[in-house]
Design brief:
The complex is a heterodimer of chains A (about 425) and B (about 325). Chain A has about 425 residues and is α+β, with helices and mostly antiparallel strands. In chain A, strand 14 and strand 15 form a beta hairpin. Chain A is globular and about 60 Å long. The chains are: A alpha+beta (about 425), B alpha/beta (about 325). Chains A and B meet through helix 5 of A and helix 2 of B.
Chain lengths: ~425, ~325
């Protein structure tokens, strides 16, 4: 039986493992920390703006399990907040065990506390992964879903230092890139000022630390918008953010709180003292990152050069997904690329033609467009997401954006991609 | 064990980050050797962060500079003239100085008080008792002769240094194992603390000792007291190696070699001839002058055409390329 080893258990890695298992492979998913989902443990927003289209496309293609799980575990559906419509938020506090169960039900072996530290290559093929502690893991094909964020040294060099975020590098050891260890030169995203990396765009407040009025409104409506006193408004931090969809002026003038289980705020960092001067937040404290007053994790420091089929260039049996595959932002984007990478990994073993998503669909156009953009430095300064900024504008202009489920499913069927992830290839 | 190859012995000590980090030559941290992103062999601490805080402290004048090793001027006494040029000596140092020398592989540098710094030479620690250090020196080179010339009684001792034994993790971690300890000549001095540590960890130790250039066995009694099975041979080359081959068939877990590099290589050849592949610990005989990885005298080629600084970096002795 052909064996797919997925390294990294974030949303992208989970999606890759899932689609490889659906395609008929034996799948091993390795995760450095003690839990899956990575930054998905603190994210929570999906189906906002163009992400709705992308999620429905994935469902039509047969890779919907993850979105169905998110929907089933949603705290709020169809909420609107500045710049964003029909958003859902899943409950970050209860999402992980559910996803793990789904993966295990597909027969995927999930190994947590297992940190890959090195790669043995044989020619242009990855032969063995070395795990921290010396264990060796062999596979036929590998998926690099190790992400691009952290570790401490990078966050110090390109950000404000380790903010003790959900990545928990000091406890579980830093992320190690399969691609980099296989001696493939990685690309680095840039901030708008040209320096490397980008800071994660949001923080979580402990909901219990908010005033009762704010908490109630948050639980009822899913969103609370609080004007920020002019004295403490800052707009310079927006350029450093990873999530350009939230780097708009409204977010400088207002504090947008979203209910994702925690109270999510859309700034990369905010002085606690300033935060507490906003009425209702007098007792506020950070949930993630713990040092959210100081900074946040730095991302895009190790993007694998890859084709539109998400095969890493320069290696025969390595695929990549999530942030590893492009300067993209978000769970939906990670899942979309993960599904494709997992399926293509299986195709690799069967000598089949690799899948590329058609550009008549938002997800296909997205991958092609982002890869095209990344060829120039200016493109590396941008972030790409279905939910806003440059790419959402393009989606609308090319009529790729739709919230009509039937229409989206028909489009996928016309492209010949209906249930493509549901086919057992082996 | 692989993890510790080319790991820096000073990581996690108060002497890290050192002058190498300051000059962008850190052995460990990719950022501190000029690379763009993190790529270290994570050992539980971020050296870039340590550097960041060190720099802050220096800027805020809480500390005046990068922490360098201690130096103490002390009086020493020669306890025994073991042979013509070999002396066992004792010196009293401060508690602060003695305490970090308790670990395996510890050594110090010695020189006469008024000699210039390039007279410093490295000496293994044979024993630490309270704040008395026991050392054995062979007064044969321009530096070591100076220590005893003209009835000198005062020396400057600089330390602590720790990389005196290659394969140190084996010594620290092996318990209830069978170990062969081979020591020749002056190598008996570092062999003693290794035997003590191994016996403390409930190992069974068989020692093969030869007098070597020193011309005398001086640790036999102590080893027997520890419960080590001691075999004495007149020559390691002639009698020691056949005996080693014999005991190798008792399926030991580890071979420890304390002595010159020729002895290490001899043991490797004997193991190869006996077709036995077990881990090896070897005393570090690299020429050392500064002990900080700066001067370059301890630089050695290892496999994969890499160079390592033996004053600071651990490696498997088998990786060293024979000169």
């Amino acid at each position: 039986m052909l064996k797919v080893v997925v390294v990294g258990g974030g949303w992208a890695g989970c999606a890759a493992a899932l689609s490889a298992a659906k395609a008929g492979a034996q799948v091993l998913l390795l995760e450095r920390t003690d839990s899956l989902l990575g930054t998905g443990l603190v994210g929570g927003i999906f189906r906002n703006n163009g992400r709705y289209t992308a999620a429905e496309e994935a469902i039509a293609m047969g890779g919907g399990d993850i979105f169905v799980a998110m929907d089933a575990n949603a705290r709020h559906k169809g909420i609107s907040f500045p710049g964003h419509n029909h958003a859902s938020t899943y409950d970050v506090t209860t999402m992980e065990p559910l996803v793990k169960k789904i993966l295990q039900n597909y027969g995927i072996e999930v190994r947590t506390n297992t940190r890959m530290v090195d790669v043995l290559k044989c020619g242009k093929k990855i032969h063995t992964l070395i795990i921290d502690g010396g264990l060796e893991i062999k596979g036929d094909v590998f998926v690099d879903a190790t992400g691009t964020a952290g570790s401490m040294g990078n966050c110090l060099t390109y950000g404000n230092g380790c903010a003790m975020c959900v990545m928990r590098c000091p406890s579980f050891g830093p992320r190690v890139s399969v691609t980099a260890k296989a001696e493939i030169k990685e690309l680095m995203g840039r901030k708008s000022d040209g320096s490397f990396g980008a800071m994660s765009g949001s923080c979580k407040l402990c909901k219990e630390s908010l005033s009762i009025e704010i908490r109630d409104k948050l639980e009822r409506d899913g969103v609370v918008v609080l004007p920020i006193p002019e004295r403490i408004q800052k707009d310079s931090s927006l350029g450093k953010k990873a999530c350009t969809q939230y780097a708009i002026a409204e977010y400088a003038a207002n504090l947008v709180l979203l209910d994702t289980g925690h109270a999510k705020i859309m700034t990369p960092y905010f002085s606690l003292e300033d935060l507490r001067s906003i009425p209702g937040l007098e007792k506020a404290r950070y949930e993630d990152p713990y040092a959210g007053s100081m900074g946040n994790s730095v991302r895009y420091l190790g993007i694998a050069p890859c084709t539109n089929s998400l095969k890493v260039e320069g290696l025969d049996n390595l695929f990549c997904c999530g942030e590893k595959s492009a300067v993209l932002v978000g769970h939906t984007e990670a899942v979309i690329t993960g599904l494709l990478a997992g399926n293509n990994a299986v195709r690799h073993c069967l000598d089949m033609k690799y899948l590329e998503l058609p550009t008549t669909l938002a997800s296909g156009d997205f991958i092609v467009f982002v890869h095209e953009q990344m060829k120039v430095e200016a493109g590396l300064r941008m972030r790409y997401t279905f939910s806003g900024s440059l790419y959402f504008e393009r989606m609308k202009a090319l009529a790729l954006y739709s919230t009509n489920r039937i229409e989206i499913h028909e489009k996928v069927a016309r492209a010949g991609f209906k249930d493509i992830y549901n086919v057992c290839l082996v | 064990m692989n993890r510790n190859i080319s790991q820096c012995i000073d990581v996690n000590s108060k002497y890290c980050p050192c002058l190498l980090a300051e000059t962008n030559q850190c052995i460990f941290c990719s950022h501190l050797k000029g690379e763009m992103t993190c790529n270290c062999n994570w050992a539980g601490v971020c050296i870039l962060y340590e550097k960041h805080w060190q720099y802050k402290k220096i800027q805020q004048e809480c500390e005046d500079s990068i922490k360098t090793r201690m130096e103490e001027e002390v009086t020493f006494t020669v306890k025994e003239q073991i042979s013509e040029h070999t002396y066992r000596m004792e010196l009293q140092v401060s508690n602060e100085f003695a305490e970090p020398l308790m670990s395996i592989g510890s050594f110090v540098f010695l020189k006469r008080p008024n000699d210039p710094a390039f007279f410093y030479f490295p000496v293994n620690i044979m024993r630490v008792q309270d704040n008395t250090l026991e050392l054995v020196i062979e007064a044969i080179g321009p530096k070591s002769i100076r220590i005893l010339a003209d009835n000198n009684e005062k020396i400057v001792v600089r330390g602590p240094y720790w990389n005196g034994v290659l394969g140190q993790p084996w010594i620290d971690n092996l318990t209830y194992g069978k170990i062969i300890l081979v020591a020749g000549g002056i190598g008996q001095a570092p062999a003693l603390p290794l035997a003590v540590k191994l016996m403390n960890n409930n190992n069974q130790v068989t020692a093969i000792l030869a007098p070597g250039k020193v011309g005398k066995i001086f640790i036999e009694e102590q080893l027997r007291e520890l419960g080590v099975e001691v075999h004495i041979v007149p020559s390691l080359r002639k009698h020691g190696m056949p005996m080693l081959e014999e005991v190798l068939h008792r399926t030991p877990d580890l071979v420890v070699s304390a002595g010159p590099d020729n002895q290490h290589y001899g043991i490797i050849r004997t193991m190869q001839a006996a077709d036995i592949n077990i881990p090896m610990v070897a005393t570090n005989n690299a020429t050392m002058c500064c002990g900080e990885g700066i001067c370059g005298s301890c630089l050695k080629k290892v496999q994969d055409n890499k160079e390592i600084k033996l004053c600071k970096q651990q490696t498997d002795f088998l990786n060293l390329i024979e000169d």
